[in-house]
Design a protein that fits this description.
single chain; mainly alpha; 6 helices; DUF6691
């Protein structure tokens, strides 16, 4: 049943990205172009998403289990550290350069947009590289010959 809820959530999210135009990188880049022909529509989409999310989180905070019956899992981190700051800066730079963030890139890639396919491939390579680096950083130090 969990996979059905995940599918529905992903479908609604993807349709929302398509309807709002956020799968179009020109729309995102227009929002980030503060000195040119600024497009405020992304700010309106984000504001609407924040309003819906605030209501949803207020309701969910009072529950012990999700609608699908899974236990609620809330983030434990409460402070800003260098990894979060560096990840946020990297995400923002990639978003500004490509006009895609992961969700809209997957939607556009599924529609066959060449730039999105390249972005998703680069994103997958970055995740694989992170996984490799994290694996080697977690290995215990060698002792002895």
């Amino acid at each position: 049943m969990v996979i059905v809820f995940a599918f529905i959530a992903g479908l609604v999210f993807g349709l929302g990205l398509i309807v709002s135009g956020m799968a179009n990188p020109a729309k995102v880049l227009g929002f980030l172009d503060l000195t040119g022909a600024w497009d405020p529509s992304l700010a309106l989409v984000m504001g609407g998403a924040l309003a819906v999310t605030a209501v949803g989180f207020t309701w969910l905070r009072r529950r012990r289990a999700s609608v699908s019956g899974e236990p609620m899992q809330w983030p434990g981190a409460t402070r800003l550290d260098w990894r979060l700051a560096l990840g946020s800066l990297t995400f923002g730079a990639g978003w500004g350069l490509a006009g895609f963030c992961p969700g809209p890139a997957l939607v556009a890639a599924a529609a066959g947009v060449r730039e999105a396919l390249v972005f998703v491939a680069a994103m997958a390579a970055g995740m694989a590289l992170f996984s490799i680096v994290r694996h080697f950083n977690r290995r215990p130090p060698r002792t002895g010959p």
